[in-house]
Structure formats: C-alpha cells, structure tokens
C-alpha cells in the first residue's frame, strides 16, 4: 500500500509568467505536493533519518520558485525533477503550482498546473 507525505499551501512571491508585468512585479503562488515515499521504518522507529525532512523538501521548492519561468508547467516540472534528484527514494509526485490573481481579465481567482510523475529510478 502506498504512503504519502504532503506539503500543502506553501506560499511564495515569484516572477513567473509571459507578461512583462509578471516578470518585473511578480505574483503570489501556492504550491501543494504529495510525495509517495517508503515511510514504514519511520512509522516503526520514530527516526527522521527514515523519512523525508519537510524543511529540506521545502528548501528545494523554494529554490526552484526563485528561478523565473514563462510557464507554470516548466516550474512544476523543474521542482519535480529536483525533488527526484535530491530524494531518490521518492517513488512518485503529485505537484500543483497555482498563480494567485493571474492577469486574465478578472479580479481574483487562480490559474494552476498539476502534474503527476513517477520517479524512473524507483518505478516498480
């Protein structure tokens, strides 16, 4: 049975987008992720060494959010690839990057991209 670690409602100010205004003023973003990870040892041993360190995962997401991209698809993919690279035991990821109040002719709302990827190195 798969087990998941979730980080939800991670908030950032970043400079992603196609419009010049988005690249200079920036916007607010929310990231949600679910990582399939073997946590059986952590459940039994209560030892951080046997699970994902939330702070380390957050640091990877934060670092990738600092690199501007035109498309949310690219941001999400880069985050996922870095997480697979830094945490090779992650088996799969579900990742959403949402832009708050995007410049699309309305006040409020959000535009989001959600991706689901398997780690090629741990695929069963």
Q: Could you give the topology of this structure?
A:
Elements: E1 4-14, H1 20-24, E2 27-36, H2 40-45, H3 54-65, H4 72-86, E3 92-100, E4 110-118
Antiparallel strand pairs: 1-2, 2-3, 3-4
Average the pLDDT over all residues and give the rounded result. 94
Question: From the structure provided, what is the oligomeric state, counting identical versus distinct chains?
Answer: single chain
CATH topology group? GTP Cyclohydrolase I, domain 2
Largest sheet: 4 strands, antiparallel
Strand order of the largest sheet: 1-2-3-4
CATH architecture: 2-Layer Sandwich
Based on secondary structure, the structural category is alpha+beta
Instruction: Provide the helix percentage.
Output: 25-40%
* CATH top level assignment: Alpha Beta
Order of helices and strands: EHEHHHEE
Task: For the structure shown, list the relevant keywords.
single chain; alpha+beta; GTP Cyclohydrolase I, domain 2; four-stranded antiparallel β-sheet
Task: Describe the 3D structure.
By secondary structure, the protein is of the alpha+beta class. The protein has a single domain (4-102), classed as 2-Layer Sandwich (GTP Cyclohydrolase I, domain 2), CATH 3.30.1130.10. The protein has 4 helices and 4 strands; from the N terminus they run βαβαααββ. The chain has helices at 20-24, 40-45, 54-65, 72-86; strands at residues 4-14, 27-36, 92-100, 110-118. The protein has a 4-stranded antiparallel sheet, covered by helices on one side. The longest helix is centred in the middle third of the chain and has 15 residues, at 72-86. The chain is elongated and about 50 Å long. The chain starts with a strand and ends in a 6-residue tail after the last strand. The mean pLDDT is 94. Keywords: Folate biosynthesis, Lyase. GO terms for molecular function: dihydroneopterin aldolase activity.
